[in-house]
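Reagents: none. Just compute today. HTH luxR-type domain-containing protein.
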Amino acid sequence: MNNLVTHNFTNSQEQFYNTSPTQNLKSLIEKGDLHFLSEFNEIFPDFISKIKSASSKLNAMDIKFCVLLKMGFTTKEIASVTKSTVRAVQSRKYRIRKRLDVPNDEDLNLFMVTFS
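Predicted 3D structure written out:
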């Protein structure tokens, strides 16, 4: 019995330490934890300020979508997290693309992931 408890504890520790900070952040976002933004700022300290300086037309929800795109969320995942439809997410991504002047032939998701 003691070995079972120790074994389960060791597995929990290994699982915690083997996850990357971005996986932990993604988990916080999926749970709807409001502390995800402070965690995001620790991992990507300049992203939000740079995205804001790239376009003054971005509002708070646009920036949240940019953060989700930076984290590698798909359109369906963003819809789930934001409790909106896939079509609404597609529309928001289109508006963000226009506000940031991202060319139509460039993938917005890839643009956000590589944006620094």
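The helical segments are 2-18, 21-31, 36-43, 47-54, 60-70, 75-82, 86-99, 108-114.
Action item: order primers for follow-up constructs.
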